[in-house]
Design brief:
Length: 382
């Protein structure tokens, strides 16, 4: 084997953000022939990341459809990748995290007896329906994977408890920290002009995202109610809510928060805009998994709008609080951070447990070792 052929597969914006630095690392290594396949499980938001990191996919399955079902996504991923695998015959595929693309990609590779590397492996809530379907996507992918790139020691322990061989697990840190090393600039000027007009120095700006399937309906309603109360009770607070394009979310948010003073409702931003908004804001409220990792890197307190999380490390470190979607709890915890300087400083200064910017290098080294091209000493993330 002169070169290791790697096919990296992803389909959503969060996956793309976290896989982009790894794709660039593989492209820069002489040991690899790197190919990229996107499923476009999400279309527009995915394309923004590809453009930002200057990645041109070798294959684009373009599977996204209106009102797509989980079954439909899975079927289209399996069928599309079968043709790609037959043509490329990669030595290993890389998938990321917990999406339906991830599980479908791993399953398709298993059917072809192709090795699977799972980036961001080992996260668990231990409740198969929360988050849904992500918890089982991640766990089933782990059952298929040959190499497990665990972002933290805690993720490694989860895999060991499930019987994964320790030699097949490498603690890498999270690749999202690698990505943020390229996107965040202190003198950044937003392309979204509305964001340039916000007074980040004198206002306590809260950045919000909330869109997860388990929060549809009552959860989003409760979040919007709580946000209204927070701005009523705090004159110096402004909200920037990045509203997911799904009408199930968008319609509810606009019903409660549209045309409210001190509220900015914006569509999802591209990655660079999002990271730099996070860097300038006072705190973050989110049900996103990725933001739970990104915000601590920037020293921003996070209230997680979910009942469970597969990312407990930041809670243990003190930079993240799990508040769910109970209206009163959200209001109480937000006010605590907004009005208690000691509480805010404690969360702001907590150590980020998710990475040091070297995850992609560790992953590339581990793959080289796995295929026997070299024997590289890897200092795992701790």
């Amino acid at each position: 084997m002169n070169k290791i052929k790697i096919l990296t597969i992803f389909g959503t914006r969060p996956e793309a953000i976290k896989m982009a630095p790894l794709v660039k690392e593989l492209e820069n290594r002489e040991e690899f022939e790197s190919k990229v396949c996107v499923t476009a499980q999400h279309r527009e938001m995915l394309d923004q990341v590809l453009e930002l990191f200057d990645i041109v996919p070798d294959y684009d399955l373009n599977i996204m459809k209106d009102k797509q079902s989980l079954t439909g996504i899975t079927n289209r991923v399996l069928e599309g990748l079968e043709e790609v695998f037959e043509k490329e015959k990669p030595h290993m595929i890389l998938v990321h995290g917990d999406t339906t693309t991830t599980f479908g990609g791993a399953l398709a590779a298993f059917y072809q007896k192709i090795k699977v590397g799972h980036v961001e492996a080992g996260l668990r809530t231990f409740d198969k329906y929360f988050p849904f379907p992500e918890e089982m996507n991640r766990k089933l992918t782990g059952a298929i994977a040959d190499l497990h790139f665990a972002p933290t020691p805690g993720s490694k322990e989860n895999l060991l408890r499930e019987g994964v061989c320790e030699n097949d697990i490498i603690v890498t840190g999270n690749t999202v920290i690698d990505a943020m090393c390229h996107t965040v600039k202190e003198d950044y000027k937003f392309e979204t002009e509305e964001l340039n007009n916000i007074d980040y120095e004198n206002k306590k700006v809260i950045m919000i995202t909330a869109h997860r399937r388990e929060n549809w309906g009552e959860g989003i309603e409760n979040i919007c109610y709580a946000l209204n109360k927070v701005i009523e009770e705090n004159e110096d607070v402004e909200l920037v809510y990045l509203v997911h394009l799904n009408p199930v979310v968008k319609d509810v948010v606009y019903k409660h928060l549209d045309k409210k003073e001190k509220v900015h409702l914006l569509p999802p931003l591209d990655t660079r805009e999002t990271h730099n908004l996070m860097n300038k804001c006072f705190m973050v409220m989110t049900d996103s998994g990725g933001l739970q990792e990104e915000a601590p890197h920037l020293g921003k307190p996070v209230l997680v709008l979910r009942d469970v999380t597969e990312r407990p490390e930041a809670i243990e470190a003190g930079t993240v609080k799990l508040v769910g979607t109970n209206k009163e709890v959200i209001i109480e915890e937000a006010n605590k951070i907004l009005n208690n300087k000691e509480e805010y400083e404690h969360m702001k200064k907590a150590v980020n447990p998710y990475g040091d910017g070297k995850a992609s290098k560790r992953i590339a080294d581990a793959i080289i070792n796995y295929f026997g091209l070299k024997d590289i000493e890897i200092k795992e993330f701790k």
